């Protein structure tokens, strides 16, 4: 009796254990089947991967197509602008051998530097890109004299900074504005030649317009003797207007290359 009871209990325990194992395997299989669509592709068979839904791909393809279309439209506009920029570029006369300055014109720079020596003086002129200030209050009904004044006010101007040094000590610096046929001195200042954080002298001097008229004319003559004259600035005027057109064309071509990548 006792032995039979032991056999029955052992058989019952084995049956329960086998059933529990079966249930665990069934649950794992069920859970794995439910998770298969969300598992990485490396854990799925080729057929199962083909059946995995992709809800993001259509949206990604839509935005990719839209982006390419917009880029193509932008490139068309850029190409049109490049063609217009090419038409705006004019030929500038070659620098005459009699031109008194050495010209440093680096591609991509927004300035041109002129250098020369004049009886022991070192002269450096920094020529900036043209400024265009259009007067919004211009009236077409004004007389000829007023129209000529407005025409000059609306034409591009070239900022110049003229630095004249004589070795150690101080430098004389003129800030000027060049028109097509005129040079106007805006300011005059002295700077220390020694390298320091504050090269400007404590007393900056009066405004140039506040100087006596004869003194202003004398300074104009001083610059003309050093070839800072209307004949020089007239050439620089055309040169810088052309340089701005060339740099704009180069800039647009670089933008196009970036968009096309």
UniProtKB/TrEMBL annotation:
Gene3D superfamilies per the record? Mitochondrial glycoprotein
Task: Locate the region Disordered.
Answer: 130-157
Top-rank taxon, per record:
Eukaryota
Q: Give any Gene Ontology cellular component.
A: mitochondrial matrix
Compositionally biased tracts (Basic and acidic residues): 135-153
Q: Where are the transmembrane segments?
A: none
Which Pfam families does the UniProt record give? MAM33 (PF02330)
Stated name of the protein: Mitochondrial glycoprotein
